[in-house]
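Lab notebook, bench 4. We co-purified these components, and the gel suggests they stay together. Before we commit to crystallization screens, I want a quick structural picture of the whole thing.
Request: model the full complex, all chains together.
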Amino acid sequence: MRRASHKPFTLSVKALVYDKKGRCLLLKRSNQARANPGKWEFPGGKLDPAESFDQALLREVREETGLTVSLRKVAGAAESELPETRVVYLIMEADVVSGEFKLSEEHTDFQWASSAQIRQTDLTGQFYEFIHSYQFPSR
Amino acid sequence: MRRASHKPFTLSVKALVYDKKGRCLLLKRSNQARANPGKWEFPGGKLDPAESFDQALLREVREETGLTVSLRKVAGAAESELPETRVVYLIMEADVVSGEFKLSEEHTDFQWASSAQIRQTDLTGQFYEFIHSYQFPSR
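Here is the predicted assembly.
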C-alpha cells in the first residue's frame, strides 16, 4: 500500500447517538448503495461548504434520523480509501435531545444496540478498528 | 462534569510529523503561552474559514516548522475544554517531504523523539490519553 497517496482527503463526521438506556443507534445501508451495500453504520456525513464539523453532524443526524442530538465528546477517528478520495471520519458521542425517529431513504433498517451487539454487527469496514478499541461509556 | 455543555466546538488539526528515521516532531510551547506554558505539543492548529482540514494542517505545519509534509493517514482524535470553547483535535500522521526546519515564535524548543521518548515527555494534557493508546507505526 502506498503511504503517501496524492488522493485528496475528505472529512466526514459521524455520531454514536445514545438513547436514555445507553444504547447506540446503528443504521443499515440500502442493498442498492454503491459502497458497502447492506452494511451497518453510524449516522453522519460530509460537511457542506463552509459548514463547521459540529453543525454538519447535527444536520446529518437530523436528516438521517429525524432526531435532534447534542454532542457530548469526541469518540475517535477512522479512515477509508475510495477510488477518488480518502475519507477521514471524526466520530463524536451524542445524546438524543428531541425528535421522532424516522429513517431516511438512505437506510433500510435501524437498531438501538448495546456495545456487545455493536461489536457483533456487520459494520462498514472502516469502523472495525475504531469500534474494537473504543471505550463505550459506562452507565 | 456536565455532559451536554452548550459551549461551541472548534476543530483543530494536529500532525505527528515523522522524519526518515521514524522519529516524531515535538514542539515546546513558550513559557509565556496563555494555555499550557512550557508543555510539549504537536504542530498544527485551527482551520481558517472555508479551509479544508488537510489544507489547514499543511499550512500550520509549514508556518510552525518550515517543513512541507505529506499526510499519511489518520492517527486519532482528542479533546480539550477551554473557558469559551471545546476544542476537538483530529490528529494525522505525516511525513517530511521538503523544507528547512525552523521554529516559529510560538515555540521555544523542539525534539525529534522516539515513541518511548514521547510517552515520557510533558505533553499538553489533552494528548495524554491519545498518545498512550496510539499505535506508533512499526518501522
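Chain A touches chain B at residues 3-4, 6, 8-9, 11, 49-50, 52-54, 70-79, 86, 88-92, 95, 97, 133 (CB under 8 Å). Worth comparing against the SEC data before the next meeting. Helices of chain A lie at 53-65, 115-120, 128-133.
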